[in-house]
Write a structure and sequence with these properties.
The protein has 267 residues and is an alpha/beta fold. It is 25% helix and 26% strand. The chain is built from 6 helices and 13 strands. Strands 1, 2, 3, 4, 11, 12 and 13 form a 7-stranded mixed beta sheet that branches. A 6-stranded mixed beta sheet has the order 5-6-7-8-10-9, covered by helices on one side. A hairpin with a 4-residue loop joins strand 12 and strand 13. The protein is globular, with a radius of gyration of 17 Å. It binds fe (ii) ion (FE2) (2 copies).
Length: 267
């Protein structure tokens, strides 16, 4: 089966990027299951139900989470409901829900898990359980014969953690994919044990910006110490970043992996 993991969908421009690329990509690549990082969907923080439906309309079937996932409380019931295909980080103490879901697909059920790195952005005070111990706990609790493939997301800042997490899970899950940077790394690979890995997949949304935020709101703050608010970029080029993984569902192992990146001018 083919699984596509779409990087952080950053606000309106992110949704436009997904709508422009995903429907045709699903058809041309024969993709069976699409997971998207949803922590930035609604105005950059969290995801509301209407935007969730909009992305589902474009072909997204499940949603991973990050440090911004708990921002909109309207998502709480979705995170807690095991029938809703949306997770927040399993080891982020303040985030509702179990942090993993089994999601039905035409090729069988897929386990989707999100995990936060030890330190994410400025939020060093966020209470985070050890990601290695937490994923061991989840994999021990969910029977292996209840799913055909597994996608584990590590949302974190340290490249070292994101690399180690992939090797720690090599041979035990189908995909380990990092995000939160909004900038892709050039290291997509199938590890020796059969797990597809990429340190950071990148984002969907504005290309000509600081990770989706206008340069005009960042540079005066950085250079001159001005008190500025973050404004989302709404013009310029778009980018789409995702990880495409081909998985042998008879054993859950990845057989091929490819980073997909598209950049284009809006018409
Ligand atoms: Fe993000
Ligand atoms: Fe993040």
């Amino acid at each position: 089966m083919k699984i596509l993991y779409v990087g952080d969908v950053m606000a309106e421009m992110g949704m436009q990027a997904v709508e422009a690329v995903l429907p045709s990509l699903i058809k041309t690549e024969g993709i069976d299951f699409v997971v998207a990082q949803a922590e930035n969907v609604t105005d950059g923080k969290g995801m509301g139900p209407e935007d969730m439906q909009r992305l589902q309309g474009a072909g997204v079937q499940a949603f991973s989470g990050g440090n911004h996932t708990p921002h909109l409380s309207v998502l709480t019931s979705f995170l807690e409901d095991t029938a809703q295909p949306v997770v927040g980080p399993a080891n982020m103490v303040e985030c509702p829900g179990p942090g993993y879901k089994l999601v039905e697909t035409a090729k069988g059920r897929v386990l989707v898990v999100s995990m936060l790195g030890s330190i994410v952005g400025k939020q060093a005070d966020v209470e985070v359980e050890n990601p290695l111990k937490k994923i061991d706990e989840i994999l021990a609790n969910v029977p292996r014969d209840s799913y055909v493939a597994s996608v584990v997301n590590l949302h974190g800042d340290f490249s070292s953690e994101k690399v180690v997490f992939g090797h720690y899970l090599d041979g035990r899950v189908s995909v380990v994919v990092g995000d939160h940077w909004h900038v892709p790394t050039a290291d997509a690979q199938v590890l020796v044990g059969g797990t597809a890995h990429m340190t950071d997949v990148g984002m969907c949304g504005s290309l000509d910006s600081s990770l989706g935020v206008t340069f005009d709101s960042i540079i005066p703050r950085w250079r001159d110490g001005c008190q500025t608010r973050n404004h989302l970029e709404t013009s310029g080029r778009l980018q789409f970043n995702a990880l495409l993984v081909d998985i042998d569902e008879s054993n859950g192992r990845a057989v091929a992996v490819q980073h997909i990146r598209r950049v284009w001018e809006r018409s």
